[in-house]
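Hi R.,

Here's the chain you asked about this morning:
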Amino acid sequence: MTQLSQSMFPTSQLEEADGDGHNDTDNATMGEIISRRFSRRGLLKGCLAVSAISATVSPLALMTADNARATSGSAFSFPEVEAGVDEKHHIAEGYDADILLRWGDPLFADSPAFDPKNQTPESQARQFGYNNDYVGFVPLNGSSEHGILVVNHEYTNEHLMFPGIVKVVEKDNKNESGKTVKELEISPADRTRVDIEMAAHGGTVVEIRKDGGKWQVVRGGALNRRITSTTEMAICGPAAGHARLQTAADASGTKVYGTINNCAGGVTPWGTYIMAEENIHGYFIGELPTDHPEAANYKRLGLPEGTYAWGKFHERFDVSKEPNEANRFGWIVEVDVMDPMSVPKKRTALGRFKHEGAESIVAKDGRVVFYLGDDERFDYVYKFVTAGKFNPDDRVANMNLLDDGTLYVAKFAEDGTIAWLPLTHGVGPLTEANGFKSQADVLIETRRAGDLLEATKMDRPEDVGPDAANGRVYVMLTNNSKRKGDEIDAANPRAKNVFGHIIEIAEADGDFTATTGTWEVLLKCGDPSVADVGATFSTETTKNGWFGMPDNCAVDADGRLWVSTDGNSPSGTGRTDGLFAVDTTGDARGTSKLFFRVPVGAEMCGPLLLPDMQTAFVAVQHPGDGGDDWDGFGRLSYYEDLSTRWPDFKDDMPVRPSVVVITKAGGGKIGV
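And here is the predicted structure, written out as tokens:
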């Protein structure tokens, strides 16, 4: 059999974010802090399966809103799914997992039917987009059975989307087994293909309703909407109108077309939809002179990286032709889902970086706090606290809360404390002497501002989820395979930390606006049966329940933590990604159970549990991507030779990213 090489397509490489990172500061890494802290205390020696951190009497372990649960074992009760790899999805016995929305599904009364071999930009703009990531829900009239579903479309995989653009190329060299190596090559993009990709990005706003126990899309719903990379948007907040955001097409610096690479996100307490712009660097081509005013700024964000060919057909994505356009991306976008004609707003007060998400919570004094991760190795965790207070009785009064507030960056100390440092112009080193002439400059170059404040360098901060019940915050740290051995010791973290870990923060006095708090490691991820991995799942975690690469998370109405993963594979962990239920309190702390498993090649996104706990939504992203030889065919998956044809399993249909809705057979609360 001919051996196909495991080279990856550019869009897959962009999403993996496996570079060295762009933080060249000497700021301490989270790994170094953890290592010094716990090696000094003499903890974790010889501990492989049970976390000594969670075994100590910490303030986090004692802070529980339900003392009965804390001593009564796991908060979850469902038959665990068996870990593995195949072409299908799998859900815990006793539950239904139904496909709700697929790439290309019509959203409007006049939307054309999905035709994968004859897609056009116009048809894609009227259909469900590609690579669904964040999933949120805005109830209508307070109902848990009728509302607006909001879904981010992060990026596109051309090799899975378009027929006839991939060819197999035989190389002259052979592998170690003497087999001829073949690689897959993708043909250059043309204008039509680029415009379809641009229409497949962005987000979807769609009405859904539960009817007869099953959720249905309301096609043609009055509030249905597609947001794409060409949708007109307003730039708001402190950076609006700044000269660094002005372009030839927009001399005002207040209007931009589109949003890109929307990863995780959020829904605000006042019912708006938050889209987080993440890996923006891949959409720009060209080159700036080394002495250009934006050269250092762009280098810190790794752009232009040139994964996509958009700049060949749209000059605004070529920095050599429009050097300020990239400053207009990397923000948090807010959408009023109750007005399909409203202009989405880029809220610059929340900073510019590779935003993973923006989960929010109302603090004790009524101010609203948003937690933000910058998804790159060695970058930072942030939070934003609004200046104004949330008014539950006046939605209009809340609509501009995100334009005024304080953005903070996290600094973790060896003694288990955390300080939130304000990113405020004129405070500390954030002065004109260091290149910050105004608050706008601080926000445009948020990463550099964090560098100067000596924030803690983290291992790919992704979702950050607050728990209203106990004042805790869970930080998903996906991995950092670039950490060197001389940066750590045997305690934690690990050299080549390929499996990631989860940090748990307790804000002071349970106040989410606090500028201090404490932290612990909830989990070090990976296979606990392999001593060298050093994972710290509880001994109650089965061979199916452990996971690597935590990515997204959700805290449900009962205060339970759900974690979705990104990066498990047949060749890496011997399993696909999935949704895991993780205990955070009491005797079961550190126990994980597999609830839902995705098909081969897919990433698990979402998750979302509705307040009544009877419905969960998850997003299955890029199914069929990658080339692991899980089924013995040795294939690298592409349109004509897919490793799975999920979810349709029809010869004339490609693989399709989809939103899945989970309910308990016969009804009832999920997970219990």
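One quick note: Residues 164 and 588 are 51 Å apart (CA to CA).

Cheers,
M.
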